[in-house]
Amino acid sequence: MPRSAPSDETPWCLVVPVKRLGRAKSRLIGADVPPELRERLALAFATDAVTAALSATRVAGVLVVTDDPTAAAVLGALGAKIVPDAPDAGLNAAFAFGAGTARRIHGDGIGVAASAADLPALRGAELDIALARVAGDKRHFIADAHDIGTTMLFAPPGTDLDPRFGGPSRAAHTASGAVELPGTDISSLRRDVDTPADLVDALRLGVGPATAAVWAAGNRAASGV
Ligand SMILES: Nc1nc2c(ncn2[C@@H]2O[C@H](COP(=O)(O)OP(=O)(O)OP(=O)(O)O)[C@@H](O)[C@H]2O)c(=O)[nH]1
Ligand SMILES: C=C(OP(=O)(O)O)C(=O)O
Questions:
Q1: 133-147: string of b/e by CB count within 10 Å (b at 16+)?
Q2: Where does phosphoenolpyruvate bind (predicted)?
Q3: Which domains does the chain have, with CATH numbers?
Q4: N or C: which end of the chain has fewer CB within 10 A?
């Protein structure tokens, strides 16, 4: 595949794997997050992330890799292309499969932006800022707010995604030659939500309407109002 450095005209496809909602966000349960909200919040996070990504001017399409029928219906209605998690072999296999599918759909001139779905505060304008900073043919990534994991990994046209998500993936991506994108002005892209404390941080940063609605309804139910 020919390599070509990304330019201002490079279109990007966001590849977003979404786990079956029944098994998602197991770390989110805590005193402030009742179990019945877990699945609804997992779907709301993905809804807000996909909605915001579709508003970014550099994003040509969003590809969701999921076997969950509800997530497929809701995210497909937003305009995302849905494909099943054919490898069914975990997160990195889903990302690699999605990257290959994105290039088959959009052609080799597409950049692949691999993104977690649990980014309810994601802002399209900040995604455009990050994509504008991807230079050359190296993979770039964004570390999570804890500086341990990874929320997004960018593969310019002609570059293999080679995802190393999971656990301390910031170090794994650096060791694999990927370049970390700096920036205090892209904090909405770093705020993934795994725990109740992460959710409090995301709410402070400002979540999208789907997450805000689920959270408000959950709080009304809890207070009996
Ligand atoms: N398609 C697909 N998506 C996955 C898979 N594993 C994780 N994801 C997605 O990858 C992103 C990051 O995953 P995690 O933060 O580990 O999410 P999680 O597994 O729902 O959360 P925990 O149960 O707390 O570990 C989320 O958007 C998940 O939906 C998988 O095997 N297949
Ligand atoms: C998959 C990852 O994160 P987490 O499971 O903590 O969301 C990661 O940071 O690579």
A1: ebeeeebbbbbbbee
A2: 150, 166, 169
A3: 12-216 (3.90.550.10)
A4: C
